[in-house]
Write a structure and sequence with these properties.
CATH architecture: 2-Layer Sandwich
Helix content: 25-40%
Radius of gyration: 15 Å
Order of helices and strands: HHEEEHEEEH
Strand order of the largest sheet: 1-2-3
Oligomer: single chain
Number of strands: 6
Shape: globular
Number of domains: 1
Strand content: 25-35%
Largest sheet: 3 strands, antiparallel
CATH topology: Bacillus phage protein
Distance between the termini: 11 Å
Structural class: alpha+beta
CATH class: Alpha Beta
Length: 126
């Protein structure tokens, strides 16, 4: 299982907002980044000009922050709380050929959306 898929599974298992998950999501977004020991709210990112500190978005706490994870070309095609076990579920769809769907199932819509976004990144970028 890839790192993104493992992270998606961890997000789905979360019972609420988590600074550690927020940090790990941010680290997955920036290939040239590193955690700062003892500080879950910030990461180090290396760009062409050296390194910079980046404040981690509260992905697991705010729907608006989670929505920033959605890749261009993918749209939310379904959000429901009537899934298999009455859990929250979010389906993202990419309408390019071939049409692709990914699903996230978490404790709430936020974690479900994040998991779906991480799976979309895996499908798109491998």
């Amino acid at each position: 299982m890839s790192d993104l898929l493992q992270l998606a599974a961890r997000v789905e298992d979360a019972v609420g907002p988590s600074l550690v998950l927020d940090r790990d999501i941010a680290l997955a977004l920036y290939p040239r980044a590193a955690a700062i020991p003892g500080n879950e709210a910030r990461i180090l990112v290396w760009d062409g000009n050296g390194r910079t500190h980046l404040t981690v978005k509260p992905y697991t706490a705010l729907l608006d922050a989670a929505m920033t994870l959605r890749l261009e070309g993918w749209h939310v095609s379904m959000m429901t709380e009537c899934d298999q076990n009455d859990s929250a579920a979010v389906c993202l769809t990419e309408n390019e050929e071939p049409c692709r769907d990914v699903v996230g199932r978490g404790v709430n819509m936020i974690t479900s959306l994040i998991a779906a976004c991480l799976r979309a990144r895996e499908v798109t970028h491998g």
